[in-house]
Amino acid sequence: MEPAREQQLLGHDVEVSKEQEEDAPEGHQEEVAPEGQLEEQANEVKNSVEPEESKEKGDSREELEESGVQEKLEEPQEPGDLEENPILPTESPKTEESIEKDLEKEKPDEDPEELPTNVSQEKQAEDLKPEEDTTKPEVVDNPEELASQEDSGEEKPEESKEEKDKGPTELSEESPEDSSSKETEEIEELTESLKIEESQGENQEKIATAEATEDLSEIPKEESTEILEESPKNIENNKNREDIETELSEESSKTIEEEKNLKNSSLEVTEELKKDLKLEENLENTSSEIQRELPEESLEEPEEKNLEKELEENQETTKAEQLKSPPPEEDLPNEQVTLFLRQLVHQLWPELGSSPELRLERASAKGDNYLGVVWRLQVAAGRRSLVVKLPPQNRVRRKQFFARPCFLRETAAYEEFLPLAERFQEEWSVPLEDRFRQHAHCFGTRSDEPNECIVLEDLSATGYLLHNRFQDLSVEQVRLVIRSYAKLHAVSLAAKKQWPDRVKPLQVLVDIFEQRRDDYALGVYFENLKGSALSSLLSPKDDGVYRSRLEAYFSRGSYFDLLLPLVSGSNCEPFAVICHGDCWNNNILYRVGASGQVEDVRLIDWQLMRYASPVTDLAYFLFTCTSRSFRQEHLLGILEDYYLELGLHLERLGEKVDELMPRRAFEEQVKNKAAVGLLLAMMVLPIVTMQGQDVPDLQAISERIEAGATTDLHGAGFLGAGNETTFRQRMREVILDCVDFDYI
Question: Are 81 and 3 in contact (CB under 8 A)?
């Protein structure tokens, strides 16, 4: 029951009781129980319901019992304060049964507590007034509200069953003035007691609320001096209090546990941050060397490593530049290639165990290779090494750079032609030092798409290195290359005559450029090369004759129309041979001896291997790898060296040079086919003259072309501020030599 409503009801009871006392006959006047008996009974109730209550509360309650009056509080009280204002029991002339019957008749239609909130307290008090008994002038408090609350199971402060059964409250014989004064003092004492309780915090308020509920539920019945046992409702209230205390304890424990977890989490985060900082510090301190280690079942990712290799006191070579950023994932061997490599290593070196340590590192610097990716595979901490060639894995780049046809062509070179050349020379017992063996030994290949790979011997392990393409080649270097080509071509001419069936499959090879004849974007790019070549010439006053000759040559047809007849073998029979095909500096390795002299060479990258005139290899090499001054002085002598070596090697193979390549036929081949050097120089010199850091993004070029764009050397990024001057100079020299030697 709300405190304000209780005050109104109590005031109403006091007024009615006074009227009854005045109007009732003497025989019906109610007697006040002896003061000592009431005090004793109240103390027993207090001790049985709440023995742990403070002494101050007990004293306040005893003073209220002595007054025999239910006070009206001047200010609204908290629900817990109701325990400080119990209604003391009085003797009633009515029996318990008659009171219960009256209560049944007086039961209201609805619970006053459920009245709408906009109803005033005065209206609620009027509704809660009990009906007067017409036969007996007594006032009965309204217990129906308590009964309704008990039935609804609400757990708010409510009056007990004993309070429902009580009779009308007996007033004390004290005067109103004394009673009012005493009430004021008692209220002040109660207020002080409440302040002490409120200071105990939120948890103590919950416990106090539960205790107040218990207090209200234990009030003695009328006409009885014995203390009733706790009702089931009291037991339930006790349980509620215990549950609240348990809940508070659990919440406190959870809060402490959460704080501990938060602290632990904070420590863990701090540790993780420390680890991250340490890892970043380690990464910053590591070498920029690109190197990836292979796990037992798959190739391990390369770690960053610089592959700047210092050439061994060779003035004609320089340090190879290397990528400084980790390679893209698509440049690494895929799972199938990884498995293939592990199996191959085990077959080659079983003594190293089934799972030796494998590491990958870049085998070529940026700008040294355009048609694929070259790795050096370090085995067992460098005790063995191999070179692994892979095509690009990106679909667009594979298409635009013709990756698969080029890899199939190189695979055919290592799997078919070069082994055939070796067997053919063995057949004739050619001494090892005289054989054509200027190529890398191949240990294995795969040609299934997209798992193409070629595994070669690591020539750098035996001292073979690239020559710095920005430095001139020596005469001896050029002669070694030319003699190597002479041996290669001699094997082709002799084997074509002696083993025609074995050579036949190689004779029908379709040139890579022929396969791309209908590529519109490539055709436009090649046509734009003509303009770049013409722009390299000086003014008409200085280079007028050369310009006229070049323009006349270009007028014969498109770039493809000029190039394809020069790289075809069908129009130069019976002198066509198997050619290396890609004869620029980056595809030739040199070995320099301790004395500084060049001892031998190796031809690598057979991706453009073709069946054509032997002059295609010679002209390609001489016009892209030597200078005008060198050619003016040594060209004819170099061609003579070639022809002599060709004859010597044919004799080793049981053939005569005059029958297979007469001098006149050779000279005609040079005259008719040497222009290929000009066309291939137009294509290759922009790359030859470009520094590694200026190499364009081949993937970006591929995507632009795939989208339908056409471009030229500048648009593709192969010609720019870094190399344009050098390109123009060298291109002009090639044009002048081709005109001077009457090749165009």
Answer: yes
**Rounded to an integer, what is the distance from CA 352 to the centroid of its chain?**
37
55 by DSSP, 3-state: which? helix
Helix (H, G, I), strand (E, B) or coil at 600: strand
Domains and CATH numbers, the chain: 395-439+465-741 (3.90.1200)
Q: At what angle do helices 724-740 and 676-688 cross, to 10 degrees?
A: 160
Contact present, 223 and 92 (Cβ < 8 Å):
yes
Question: Which is higher by pLDDT, 559 or 259?
Answer: 559
> Whose CA is closest to 719, among 529, 521, 550?
529
Give the model's pLDDT for residue 317: 43
Enumerate residues 6+ apart whose C-beta is below 8 A from 514. Answer: 564, 567, 568
Cα 379 to Cα 179, 286, 300, 363, 478, distances in angstroms: 109, 22, 12, 14, 34
Contact between residue 148 and residue 111 where contact means Cβ atoms under 8 Å apart: yes
Q: Look up the pTM and report it.
A: 0.59
Strand residues in 284-441 grouped as ranges (E) = 290-294, 302-304, 358-362, 373-379, 384-390
The answer for residues whose C-beta is within 8 angstroms of residue 607's C-beta and 6 or more apart is 371, 372, 406, 407, 409, 410, 512, 581, 582
* Neighbour tally for 457: CB within 10 Å: 17
Cα distance between residue 23 and residue 356, in whole Å: 118
What whole-number distance in Å separates Cα of residue 535 and Cα of residue 532?
A: 5
Write a three-state SS string for 645-691.
Answer: HHHHHHHHCCCCHHHHCCHHHHHHHHHHHCCHHHHHHHHHHHHHCCC
As a whole number of angstroms, the distance between CA 475 and CA 634 comes to: 8
Rg, Å, the chain Cα set? 56
Q: 407 with 620: CB under 8 angstroms?
A: no
443, 469, 581, 583, 586 from 625: Cα distances, Å: 30, 8, 14, 9, 10
Residues 6+ apart with CB under 8 A from 461: 385
Helices 615-625, 724-740: inter-axial angle, 10-degree rounding: 130
> Of the candidates 85, 67, 61, which has an alpha carbon nearest to the alpha carbon of residue 181?
67
The length of the chain in residues reads 744
Alpha carbon distance 290, 321 (integer Å): 12
pLDDT score at 233: 47
323-360 CB burial, b ≥16 within 10 A, e <16: beebbeeebbbbeebbebbbebbeeeeeeeeeebbbbb
pLDDT by residue (tens digit) across 267-290? 554 555 444 444 444 444 444 443
Higher pLDDT, 427 or 138: 427
**How many whole angstroms separate alpha carbon 385 and alpha carbon 390?**
16
- DSSP state at residue 113: G
- 1 residue type, one letter: M
Contact 684, 734 (CB under 8 A): no
Query: What are the tokens at 394?
Result: 């990106």
Are residues 525 and 711 in contact, defined by beta-carbon separation less than 8 angstroms?
yes
Q: What is the pLDDT of residues 152-183, one digit of tens each?
A: 444 444 444 444 444 443 434 444 445 555 55
In the predicted structure, residue 64 carries a pLDDT above the cut 80? no
Q: How far apart are CA 382 and CA 460, in angstroms?
A: 13
Report how far residue 350's alpha carbon sits from residue 727's, in angstroms, rounded to the nearest whole number.
Answer: 50
Q: In this model, does residue 57 exceed pLDDT 90?
A: no
- Which strands form 464-466's sheet, in the order they lie side by side? 464-466, 588-592, 598-603
Q: Please count the other Cβ atoms lying within 10 Å of the Cβ belonging to residue 622.
A: 25
Q: Is 439 in contact with 602 (CB distance < 8 Å)?
A: yes
Least confident of 74-83, 355-364, 438-447, 527-536: 74-83
- Average pLDDT of the segment spanning 703-716: 83
Who's near 633: CB < 8 A, 6+ residues apart? Answer: none
Question: 569 falls in which pLDDT band (50, 70, 90)?
Answer: very high
